[in-house]
Amino acid sequence: MNRINVWVTYLQVAPLALVFLLFLVVPIVTIVVVSFFDYNTTQIIPAFLIQNYDELLSSPVTWQTYLQTLQFAAITWAITLVVGFVVAYFLAFHVRSATWQTVLFLVCTIPFWTSNIIRMISWIPFLGRNGLLNTTLIGMGIIDRPLEFLLFSPFSVVLAYVHLYTLFMVVPIFNSMMRIDRSLLEAARDAGATGWQTLWNVVVPLCKPGIAIGSIFVVTIVMGDFVTVRLMSGGQSASVGLMMMNAMSLLQYPAAAANAVILLLLVLLTVAAMMRLVDIRKEL
Amino acid sequence: MARTNSKGLGRRKVLKGAVGVAGALAGTTLGAPTIWAQATRNITLRQIGTGVSAINEIAEKCKADLGITLQMTALDSDAVVQRVVTQPNSFDIGDIEYWMCKKVFPANTLQAMNVKKIKYFDKIVPIFTSGKLKPDSVIAQGTAPNTVSFVEGAGSTKFAKGQTEWFTMIPTIYNADTLGIRPDLVGRKIENWKDILDPRFKGKTSILNIPSIGIMDAAMICESAGIVKYGDKGNMTRAEIDKTIDFLIKTKKEGQFRAFWKTFDESVNLMASGEVVIQSMWSPAVTAVRAKGIPCVYQPLKEGYRAWGGGLSLAKHLQGAQLDAAYEYINWYLSGWVGAFLNRQGYYSAVLETAKANMTEDEWGYWMEGKPAKGEIKNPQGVVMEKPGAVRDGGSFYDRMGAVSCWNAVMDEDRYMVQKWNQFIAA
């Protein structure tokens, strides 16, 4: 490559690089810097302290909250993976006509035309003590007193997560499945594989990139979430996001920044682990 | 516009003013003429505050009477604190709660106002000046408004012990909070704060999850149940905080609470749907439940009320014609129309005398004197709220505000308290 070509390449990369620098690198560096600052009730004081991290990591509340957040992420991930895979499988292999595939795929996305919060809140009257579900069950004589665990519990939090984020699994897995050469499935059947064997030895390995991308979406969203946890648990559960919100509302920005850095590291580690399992770039 | 420019107002203000000029031309000149009236015609004041007091009707009336354009931005309490401290140039008038004032004023982004320029200063309810509603009243615990009402001098950020000429905030609205109950579902008489702990209400109670306020409700409950005896509920020691939070965690683990609410709407929904039958509540939230045709009572309790209040404060950067306009707005605010409007919402206004002149005798009797309504009682928008014969929960202004046992507060151990509160929510 000659000299001029190199410059042209740099020029072509420059706009995107600048955007990333301005809107990704600079904010993150700022957060890291602030996380070492000192603060009092009304001021943030430039300094270099590890007190924020010390206070955070030595508190049992932090560990409890992180554990709870990881728990929510793991459960949500497992359920959305199973549901997402089944839905994608149905769309990709059982629906024969391309038109119907598109139509059904669009049906999956329709809920996303309303806001997250609205979809979440709509569960509250449904699951409540005198809600639709409880009244129906009592009316049918299945239970004689309302089920209390349905709302303002870990159950309702996970339910909302699954409802909100399954599509993020469906889309990439569906995408991977559509790329699978159908003759591979025929070859598997001709070689005498049962349906399960084909699924496990052919379809799942070829869907790995889709599964990895979907997993990254779901896990990162759930770990950073604070609205769902607060609304659906009725304030009974904590999450890392909520901890940060509380700190910020009291102007304790450095403490919130320290927490953000820890969460970022944790999420990066999780994503890195997933990337080790699946080399997304190679498989795409 | 050219004329305003020649008076030295910046281009930006002129542009802002221009937005409202069309509306202003219609009928502004009828307003009370004051010495500033000419100069303030095209001024815009940006007011930030909580949803309870950022009321569009007030902005419209202000435009009609004074020609001043008010741009109201409604935020939640936490966001107001953040704006005042971190973006002091983004507003002109800050509507701040008294307990927040203790945190916000020392940040030096607000300016105290000269009481000589406030026409009705002497008529402001004495809770905000001397701290005593009546000469023989005891000043309640917590961040009582009078303790943050005065600073030592012009430009000072240090709160004065007694009255000075420099006033931090003009009280806008205040109220005395207590527990809300569903009389149809509790099935017993509710008299004390500790009644929320009754095993009969297991899984059907709630308190609010705003640490600085929630801890005060918790303190009222703990004190009522004889679990903790506080020196000052509004300024607890670490030991008192520990005891209070430990008790809350124990109660939470036993399943006494259904939820912890953070916004007005959440509290209304919890109550209206029957998820809870007794919880901490705000007065207009009780009204909102009742407006759905569901019985709800704002229950007066033996231990008294937990009070709160908000006030208008001036941004540090205000000066010249804008500062004059801000004073004019404040004097107008206290002159009666707004007071009557706020009283009709069930809140209390700062200057009673002028508000009374703007209300009918029946309205005043119902809202402020605890008398049964003679006719229908309407809210400020004209919707009928109560039928003839109705009596306000908690009785008269003096019965309620005279029974305040503590004010929402910022404690010295604030940081520790929030850590412990997070522990409670995470438990």
Please describe the topology of this protein.
The complex is a heterodimer of chains A (284) and B (427).
Chain A: H1 3-34, E1 38-39, E2 44-45, H2 51-57, H3 60-94, H4 98-109, H5 116-121, H6 123-127, H7 132-139, H8 154-179, H9 182-190, H10 195-224, H11 227-232, H12 240-249, H13 253-277, H14 280-283
Helix pairs in contact in A: 3-8, 3-10, 8-10, 9-10, 10-13, 12-13
Chain B: H1 2-6, H2 11-27, H3 37-40, E1 44-50, H4 56-66, E2 69-75, H5 77-86, E3 93-97, H6 98-104, E4 110-111, E5 113-114, E6 141-142, E7 150-151, E8 166-167, E9 170-177, E10 179-181, H7 183-186, E11 205-208, H8 211-224, H9 238-253, E12 257-261, H10 264-272, E13 278-280, H11 283-291, E14 297-299, E15 305-315, H12 320-333, H13 337-343, H14 352-357, H15 361-368, E16 377-378, E17 384-386, H16 397-401, E18 404-407, H17 414-426
Parallel strand pairs in B: 1-2, 1-3, 6-18, 11-12, 11-13, 15-18
Antiparallel strand pairs in B: 3-15, 4-15, 5-8, 7-8, 9-15, 10-13, 10-14, 16-17
Helix pairs in contact in B: 8-9, 9-17, 10-11
Write a structural description.
- The complex is a heterodimer of chains A (284) and B (427).
- With 284 residues, chain A is an all-alpha fold.
- Chain A is built from 14 helices and 2 strands.
- A two-stranded antiparallel sheet of chain A has the order 1-2.
- In chain A, helix 9 packs across helix 10 and helix 12 packs antiparallel against helix 13.
- The mean pLDDT of chain A is 90.
- Chain B is an alpha/beta fold and 427 residues long.
- Chain B has 17 helices and 18 strands.
- Chain B is globular, with a radius of gyration of 22 Å.
- The N terminus of chain B is likely disordered.
- At the A-B interface, helix 3 and helix 12 of A face helix 5, strand 12 and helix 17 of B.
Main features:
heterodimer, A: 284 residues, mainly alpha, 14 helices, 2 strands, B: 427 residues, alpha/beta, eight-stranded mixed β-sheet, five-stranded mixed β-sheet, 17 helices, 18% strand, globular, disordered N terminus
